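Long-time lurker, first post. I've been practising inverse folding by hand and with some scripts of my own, and I keep getting stuck on stretches where the structure tokens seem ambiguous. Below is the full token string for one chain I'm working on. Before anyone asks, I'm not after the true native sequence, just a reasonable design that respects the backbone. If someone could post their per-position residues I'd love to compare against what I wrote down in my notebook.
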């Protein structure tokens, strides 16, 4: 049975690898069928791409607005927010500490669906568990963590629980300044705010954190670690391009700077530099969420003159 839309892989590099394998495995009969399709369909698509491009400011403001959230959330998260209220902490809409971001990166880099990854995060970081510090994980121990992971009905439960307990120990012993520390300033301090060194330190001490997990962590943590900004991994850049947004981190930063006074910044806190980093991160996160949920065409239409009500 083909995977549902909500089951888009959380492991982003695995999704690209899977797509490449599927493309190379298409039998010749299927390729022959595509030649029989009417030629006017691709020509119409090409004309619309050149004639009706989304307005970048409208598109970015849509991504910055609460209205875009449902386009980048799996269905079960939408239902969960409706049932439990807007105070529910979610990966899609909440601000997390560096420790929580690192936890999320470990979870989302596992070979599970995007929906299961986000459900695990909601379960772990909300009542009744609230594993928001290394101390809370260590006090609860493996039994409490595995109970939460089981409640999330995810996959690879034993290994995920083990890795989260090991993560808490690693923060206390190597990455932080005590079991209540959630800022991980020790990492920046010992690595002289050098992202390449920080990646090596994190990879060395955090079990289960590879390239994909480091990309996920880096994409989000730059809102709080200025030396990394602007950063965008290749998987996210692909999502941006599907929305007709710039294909490099530097180009996206320039676009946001150029239109800064036209952007809807309601809800973004801090000084101007902090706001710019947070806006940059939100655009990245919404773009990749939209892509993982298969909603890029709909979001583009929202920002394309003449197509909104088609």
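-- Answer (accepted) --
I ran through it position by position. Result:
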């Amino acid at each position: 049975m083909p995977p549902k839309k909500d089951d888009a892989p959380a492991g982003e590099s695995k999704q690209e690898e899977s797509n490449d394998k599927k493309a190379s495995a298409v039998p010749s009969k299927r390729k022959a069928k595509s030649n029989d399709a009417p030629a006017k369909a691709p020509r119409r698509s090409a004309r619309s791409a050149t004639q009706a491009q989304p307005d970048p400011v409208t598109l970015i403001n849509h991504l910055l607005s609460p209205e875009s959230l449902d386009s980048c959330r799996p269905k079960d998260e939408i239902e969960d927010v409706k049932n439990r209220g807007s105070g529910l902490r979610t990966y899609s809409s909440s601000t997390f500490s560096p420790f929580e971001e690192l936890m999320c990166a470990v979870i989302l880099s596992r070979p599970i669906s995007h929906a299961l990854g986000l459900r695990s995060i909601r379960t772990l970081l909300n009542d009744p568990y609230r594993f928001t510090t290394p101390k809370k994980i260590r006090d609860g121990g493996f039994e409490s963590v595995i109970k939460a992971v089981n409640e999330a009905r995810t996959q690879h439960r034993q290994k995920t629980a083990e890795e989260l307990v090991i993560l808490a120990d690693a923060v206390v012993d190597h990455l932080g300044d005590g079991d209540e520390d959630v800022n991980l300033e020790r990492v920046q301090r010992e690595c002289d705010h050098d992202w390449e060194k920080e990646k090596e330190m994190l990879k060395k001490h955090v079990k289960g954190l590879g390239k994909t997990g480091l990309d996920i962590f880096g994409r989000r943590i730059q809102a709080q670690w200025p030396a990394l900004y602007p950063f965008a991994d290749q998987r996210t850049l692909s999502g941006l391009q599907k929305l007709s947004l710039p294909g490099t981190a530097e180009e996206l930063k320039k676009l946001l700077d150029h239109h800064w006074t036209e952007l809807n910044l309601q809800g973004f806190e801090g000084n101007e530099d902090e706001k710019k980093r947070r806006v940059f991160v939100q655009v990245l996160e919404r773009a990749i969420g939209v892509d993982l949920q298969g909603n890029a065409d709909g979001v583009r239409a929202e920002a394309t003159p003449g197509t909104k009500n088609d």
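A couple of notes from the structure itself: The chain has a mean pLDDT of 86. The first helix runs from residue 12 to 24. Happy to go over any region you disagree with.
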